[in-house]
């Protein structure tokens, strides 16, 4: 079960309200998976009347939702890799080299979207390897 008091502190709610809101969340039997459903109307309906506090809570809930989305994307990709590992191994035994171009392309797209969401690269940068930014490496390259 989620410790609502510490979660609300991360949202930037002041201590006297943190305890009150943590009790509201517990009394309403809210769980961690309910965070993605938080809205102004919902928070107001359970007794959080301060609009600024609702904004802080919703901002943290959105961040949590983004982390869950990135985590789910990576989990899905790892599941696909595990599933394909056996098939790729069979192809390698038959003399076919490596994964298909479609598989490589899909892997690169998932990796780039994840890195963009985490703020490691900009959407228009090319990502090869872990953190290479090839666009800026060859900006001033001239023929000799």
Automatic annotation (TrEMBL):
Organism: Zostera marina
Pfam families: SAM_2
Signal peptide: none
The protein's name in its UniProt record: SAM domain-containing protein
UniProt cross-references to InterPro entries, sorted A to Z: SAM (IPR001660), SAM/pointed_sf (IPR013761)
Domain of life: Eukaryota
Domain SAM: 7-67
Species lineage: Eukaryota, Viridiplantae, Streptophyta, Embryophyta, Tracheophyta
């Amino acid at each position: 079960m989620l410790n609502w008091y510490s979660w609300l502190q991360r949202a930037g709610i002041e201590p006297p309200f943190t305890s009150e809101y943590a009790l509201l969340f517990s009394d309403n039997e809210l769980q961690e998976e309910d965070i993605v459903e938080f809205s102004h109307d919902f928070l107001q309906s359970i007794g959080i009347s301060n609009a600024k506090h609702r904004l802080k809570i919703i901002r943290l809930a959105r961040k949590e939702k983004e982390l869950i989305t990135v985590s789910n994307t990576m989990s899905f990709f790892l599941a696909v890799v595990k599933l394909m590992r056996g098939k790729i191994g069979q192809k390698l035994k038959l003399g076919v080299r490596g994964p298909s171009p479609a598989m490589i392309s899909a892997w690169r797209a998932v990796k780039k979207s994840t890195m963009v969401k985490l703020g490691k690269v900009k959407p228009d940068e090319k990502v090869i390897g872990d953190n290479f930014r090839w666009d800026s490496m060859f900006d001033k390259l001239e023929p000799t």
